[in-house]
Amino acid sequence: MTDRFDILIRGGRVVDPANRVDQVTDVGVADGRIVAVGDDLRGRAERTLQAAGHYVLPGLVDLHVHIALPSAPGAGHAMLARAGVTTALDLSGPAAGVLAGAAEGGGAGLSIATLELVKPGVQLPPHPSRAEIRRALDRILAAGGLGVKLHVDAGWDAEATGTIIDEANRAGVWVASHCGTTTAGSDIEGLRETLELAGDNRLQIAHVNSYCRGDVADVAEEAATAIALLRGSPHVFAESYLAEINGTSGRCVDGVPANRRVIRWLEGGGYPGTEEGLRRAIRDGWASVPHVCGDDVVLRTGEEGVAAWEAAGTPSGVCLPINPGVSRLLLGASRNAAGGFDVHAFATDGGCIPRNVTLSMGLSMVEWGLLRVDDLVRKACWTPARVLGLAAKGHLGVGADADLVVADPVARRPRTVIAAGAVVAHEGLVLGRGTRFISTARGEEAVEAATGPGTVIDVRAGGLYTGDGLA
Question: Which keywords, in A-to-Z order, does the entry hold (predicted)?
């Protein structure tokens, strides 16, 4: 056993289900790795953290974030670090933009990967051939991305959606979907259609809770339907988030929101589905406007929120409280007959959108008895690490990457966050710098040119394709 530690964490409750550890003990870190876990560790430590009364957990692995924010390129990184996330997958891209943002904003010491949101008429024709899809995939990989993201608002039809999913599987790259096409909405029917289009192909289903907002049936009924649909597609990776707010465009054209879903949401909140209705909702505090404040993004309401929204000419994003607690909790806690989770992981759809609440809301679910602490770690750390194929992350075994969170169980927030053996955030202050970018071998050269040497993975070897973590 080593007699030297860069960081020694003493007396915390270490919760690491991958290694069947749940006990008050010590954790030693050296050279970016976990080098010892045990009682009363002895040795010289450069830094000692007293963790009595706190949880010591693996760093969170969030497989659905949005990091890029042109007006504050470092904010998404800093916000994730404060929330205890040490590894994240951006579901917008493009890779060049995420890499440039990481370099310009300085990063926060996290491990980051990205997909690229593909749109008809932009990366691909509206009805792409398989050859055109393959060429687009190769370009995305070469730029440092892991694969593609499909989105209902992009306007893909069902045939193109199915073909892109199939071609991504043939290429062994990552593919994720915000469900819905030109024939189905972003709702429970969109989830049903997407699973049918995917067939036996592998796919990440983004934010399952967002298809269970009561648009088609009762919220609890929609959640039960979503669970049944996912049980019928056990090869598909599903995640959901725990925040009440969504994030969407506040852009208005000719006096009405450009996104028709915003019209419906406003009307559901008791406001006219118009630009003036959105203005009133912000003024009343029902809707909020994300506003950059240093390396953070905060939500503004009232006249301050209206001013921020109007200053951007109304294209500013808005957040609306439209995610019912019933579906969030049912989907977060639901288990199948084998004891596994129907929705495999927690993700935030956050990053630079201020809803990075997996740890705080997850610990609330622990207090309510809906989850155990080790369940939370499985869903927020261990399972997503396995799905991404990062065997050294998501757990605290000797030899694992030293990605950890010391969390206050009463305040339900991270106190200290460690990534690759360095403290990247402490009491809300972000200290980490740089980014460890995760790409395939095809993108290694682009990543090194932008942010320095990164981590190379084979997507096909991870759980998205092998099923590791999906049982």
Answer: Hydrolase
